[in-house]
Design a protein that fits this description.
Blueprint: H1 22-49, H2 62-75, H3 80-88, H4 100-108, H5 114-127, H6 151-161, H7 179-186
Length: about 200
């Protein structure tokens, strides 16, 4: 259903937001939220599809890497939040290669628990433990976060669901297995406050 098909939806008469009325914004906000929510999981799956293709020297592409990560997490009975985080931890590679961890975490922030958000946000520097020293960097850069209550969880994530997920012989679950989990997580009320105050009934 498009926003135009929502009851009470109309096209505003103005071209600059300063001219909008309360009635306009009371119509526009739910119309956008309805559209955005309905399209969210399909859009995320489309972003994952962008990781298919070149292996860039690895034995699997980034899409298979993501499926392996999520499959291992699901088979280890991790939380729904962490499984979804594992599936999407590199989803920003295609549009935010310099800060993919932070970008992926920002996508997840409104919907997942605090620990999963923190782990995905910092997994890039923690993953560096396995290779930074080969490039003249500090493999222990993650020690900057040693006081975080989520430090050990991030170490575990990288050890079990990231650095080892480049195996062409591993049998990953198909993406269809994760669709119900994505639907569950991304149908939750946002835990990040919006810019507009909630209306009281």
């Amino acid at each position: 259903m498009s926003s135009e098909e929502l009851p009470g939806t109309y096209t505003v008469s103005w071209t600059d937001m300063a001219s909008g009325t309360q009635a306009d914004y009371e119509m526009l906000t739910p119309a956008f939220e309805h559209h955005a929510r309905a399209a969210l999981v399909p859009n995320l799956l489309g972003m994952l599809d962008l990781l298919k293709g070149p292996t860039l020297g690895y034995q699997v592409d980034r899409y298979e890497h993501s499926l392996q990560s999520a499959s291992r997490a699901l088979r280890n009975d991790e939380s729904v939040d962490l499984v979804v985080g594992a599936l999407l931890h590199d989803v920003a590679d295609g549009f935010a290669p310099e800060n993919h961890s932070e970008a992926a975490a920002a996508l997840l922030a409104p919907y997942v628990d605090e620990q999963t958000h923190w782990v995905i946000k910092h997994h890039g520097i923690f993953q560096g433990y396995y290779y930074f020293h080969h490039l003249g960097g500090d493999r222990d850069a993650r020690s900057l976060y040693a006081e975080s209550p989520h430090f050990d969880a991030c170490v575990q994530f990288c050890a079990e669901y990231d650095q080892n997920c480049f195996d062409p012989s591993y049998t990953s679950l198909p993406i269809e297995e994760f669709r119900p989990l994505l639907d569950e997580v991304f149908s939750r009320p946002s835990r990040v406050p919006g810019v507009a105050p909630a209306r009281e009934n």
